[in-house]
């Protein structure tokens, strides 16, 4: 559950950058959004791995 909380924090923290990029065309904000999305990808993969391990233990 810690990783899921991290995902929510990353999404909340990048909200302003997403708006700056799409509404104002701020290219630096776009870079920050891309970095945050990469972090989300990594966290999602970690959660997938953890879920698979826990699922296989239960069987």
Question: Any chance you could write out the topology, listing elements then pairs?
Answer:
Elements: H1 2-24, H2 27-58
Helix pairs in contact: 1-2
Outline the structure in words:
- Helices cover 93% and strands 0% of the residues.
- It is mostly helical.
- The protein has one domain (2-58).
- The chain is elongated, with a radius of gyration of 15 Å.
- It starts with a helix and ends with a helix.
Shape: elongated
Largest sheet: none
Please indicate the count of domains. 1
How many beta-strand elements?
A: 0
Structural class: mainly alpha
The residue ranges in which pLDDT falls below 50 over 5 or more consecutive positions are: none
Summed over residues and divided by their number, the pLDDT gives a mean of 94
Quick summary of this structure?
With 59 residues, the protein is mainly α. It has helices at residues 2-24, 27-58. The chain has 2 helices and no strands.
Task: Provide keyphrases for this structure.
elongated; 2 helices; single chain; mainly alpha; 93% helix; 59 residues
